[in-house]
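Data card: per-record layout.
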Amino acid sequence: MNAGRGGSAAAILARGLGVPALAGAAAILGFAPFYAWPVAIASLAALFLVWLRSGSPLQAALSGYAFGLGLNLAGVSWVFVSLHEFGSMPAPLAAAATFLFCAFLAIFPAGAGWAARRMAPGGRLGDAVTMAACFALVEWVRGWILTGFPWLTMGYTQAPASPLAGFAPVVGAYGVSLATGLAAACLAAAFASIAWSRERWTAVGGLALLFAAGALLRLVSWTDPAGPAVSVSLLQGNVSQHLKWREDVRAATLDDYARMTIEAKGRVIVLPETALPAFLDRLPPGFLETLADHARREGRDILLGTVERRFAGERFEYFNSVVTRGASPPQSYRKRHLVPFGEFIPPGFGFVLAVLKIPLTDFGRGEPGQPPLEAGGVAWAVAICYEDIFGEELIDQLPRAGILLNVSNDAWFGESLAADQHLQFSQMRSLETGRWMVRSTNTGVTAAIDERGRVVARLPAFVRGTLEANPVPRAGSTPYVRWGNAAMLVAAALAIGLPAIRRRRPERREGAPGR
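The structure for this 515-residue chain is written out next.
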């Protein structure tokens, strides 16, 4: 990609940086609430075309960085809302912090571009396939390094309607990312090939094969019903984050949730994350007992998002929890995967507290391997808010659990794309596990999702209400529940290795001694 071959420096910059940045921003249309899954494939294809024409790993890395910056500035700018509106960080500082966060996330697609060009086996299709595998692998790394942030994983763009979503029960969200990348690789190779060469035909055939395989996998029923539907009431209190912890609002919030709980019709009643603005042991006398007694008389169970605390040594430990009260024995699930800077401050970053006014930033981590919660005669696999985006952690509670449960408080993100994006991630969890997911949130999106990832019922955002749903518990294990991300990692390794091996074989034959 030099001036002699590609034109002026301005044109080179436009192709190498401008096109990937626009493609990254456009990829957001593949995520909820837009669900335009073909746009995500086309966006990746545009990036891979730029990488195919890059003259060096460094150029590919810069293009990948531009793509990542466009993607994240368009897709996670809601971080500004959390920092400024609810964290009381001054607007210029919040804007700078948001940009730096997006700039950090852009390093990952930059690394994918650099690695793909370094390992390119030669040949447009082989190179593009290598790019797809590197992109998926780097997304997997982003999902665990520094506690992980897999928010805009490209595989989510295919949930729930794309044929490629059929791969989710087999290889999970990262595997769908790989399939999305391979589809984009075929498109890029087809556009880059000369006329209707054998390589172009192979690319088109590969694209058709991917979609056909995904569509066929969508026809497979990976799990079976494990009993009758369970009536569930999902409460959405719509309590403003600005007001939630104020003393003059606390009594009204408690009264509203008490009334909604008593009026709910479901056998299982779910309140969202940290629904009640008080520690569990500091609720008004008799408040929790009154609700529990009512539930027991009616043969119901309450699943309540709350803050637990216990005294350990010389200080209290706090836990973001879901507890049960009612007909079933009392149980508790404590959040394991905490949000950096939201629920804990990483070592060395204590100075952030001077500008970030977020309550309860010293939560403790729940124990690994916690069992599902039993309520309404069903085992529930629980994920509290952010945990919902870590598929391999949620499957720890499977196959024992029959229904997935997420309680969240996305009020932190205001009227942004975040709540709808979070809903789509829940849809992917249903696809991966072959199970219903029900979500109770403070301000939205409260919804019920079936085992095919389809939203069958939801409440409008920013209204107070109760969603009545009837999820069906299911039994059995999808391949993803059994293997986790291992199958995707093997597939990505093969996608990198096979083109390289195939490319070397002719070289060996040409160099072999004659007979």
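Known properties of this structure: The first helix runs from residue 3 to 6. The longest strand covers residues 301-312.

See the next section for split statistics.
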